[in-house]
Design goal:
binds adenosine-3'-5'-diphosphate, globular, 318 residues, 18 helices
Length: 318
């Protein structure tokens, strides 16, 4: 295809020719270091694994695709910048989609073999990635940078992924079969999947090294947003002060970053992120349990069985 001819280095092409591959939702996924990835992001993965130099003060948001990354990016950006960017009509999140303020390493900064100039980023630098824990650039493991991980009930994640992919393939959404996509998801064949390896990799590390890695679940954040925003602030060493508590900073940030508020901003209705995706595609329903409206009871049971089997004994549940 066009991308393979024009945008992938010889080194990447040689690698791709050796990897197992599968056709999923109109794209070819390759299995690299145990996870599935399309050719274009894979080139970005290789580039960031080779070149990204983490600093001790960096914060890296790591997520499974469609688990609430956009929300976490907005919350973290608002939290970290709250001293010099209070919530006003001039806040950067009013004019920018969260993905343009907290950029992906492999999907954005390092795509097309770019090696970005990160000198203008002020500390603490905030980046994001979907890479599995073991595949993070070495410097992330070696430095004291912090990792914040977010995942979500795989049933809702799958439904969200399916809708998102249909939007991305707007010219022929009807030929993406829901059943085939579900079957592949259950086999672990989806971008950055299998989901169980992704989630367990970060979960186990959060138990080993809670100072380094904060593990969050979308459902918990929806249920107790104040508690988790305070945890986030503490974890990244900028706790909410007593004065900020009396000023209502926690509710202010949560309200500003809420699904309804972000979705209704002009930039998120009309704009596109730098990678070309329409901003509106990142805001669909924002609810827990929407899978019930899309999966049959049998499909729900099948995924629940996989979840039970894979996470059994880990202490983790959805
Ligand atoms: P749904 O498709 O279930 O609605 P990601 O940001 O990782 O791509 O995940 C997208 C999911 O997060 C979508 O889920 C989207 O609606 C939801 N989402 C986006 N912004 C949100 C917010 N501010 N609060 C809660 N959920 C949000």
């Amino acid at each position: 295809d066009k991308f393979l001819k024009e945008e992938v280095t010889e080194e990447c092409k040689a690698l791709l020719s050796t990897l197992p591959k599968e056709e999923v939702m109109l794209s070819t996924l390759y299995k690299y270091q145990g996870f599935w990835c399309a050719a274009r992001p894979l080139a970005g993965v290789l580039a960031c694994q080779q070149h990204f130099q983490a600093q001790d003060t960096d914060i890296l948001l790591t997520t499974t695709p469609k688990s609430g990354t956009t929300w976490l990016k907005a919350l973290m950006f608002a939290l970290i910048n709250r001293k010099h960017s209070p919530i006003t009509k001039d806040h950067p999140l009013i004019a920018n989609n969260p993905h343009d303020l907290v950029r992906y390493l492999e999907l954005d900064l390092y795509v097309n073999h770019q090696v970005p100039d990160l000198a203008s980023f002020t500390s603490p630098r905030l980046f994001s990635t979907h890479l599995p824990f073991v595949s993070l650039p070495k410097s992330v493991h070696q430095s004291a940078c912090k990792l914040v991980y977010l995942c979500r009930d795989p049933k809702d994640t799958f439904v969200s992924l399916w809708h998102f992919t249909r939007k991305l393939r707007a010219q022929n959404p009807e030929i993406i079969s829901f059943e085939a996509a579900f079957h592949n998801y259950c086999k672990g064949v989806n971008p950055f999947g299998p989901f169980w390896d992704h989630i367990l990799g970060y979960w186990n590390e959060s138990l080993r090294n809670p100072e380094k890695l904060l593990f969050l679940q979308y459902e918990d954040m929806k249920k107790q947003p104040r508690l988790h925003l305070r945890r986030l602030a503490e974890f990244i060493r900028c706790p909410i002060s007593a004065q900020e508590e009396t000023e209502g900073v926690v509710d202010e940030i949560l309200g500003f970053c809420s699904f309804d508020n972000l979705r209704n901003l002009k930039v998120n209705k009309d704009g596109r992120v730098s990678t070309g995706v329409e901003n509106s595609a990142f805001f669909r329903r924002g609810e827990v349990g929407d899978w019930k409206n899309h999966l049959t009871a049998e499909m729900g049971d099948r995924l629940d069985k996989i979840i039970e089997e894979k996470f059994c004994g880990s202490g983790l549940s959805f």
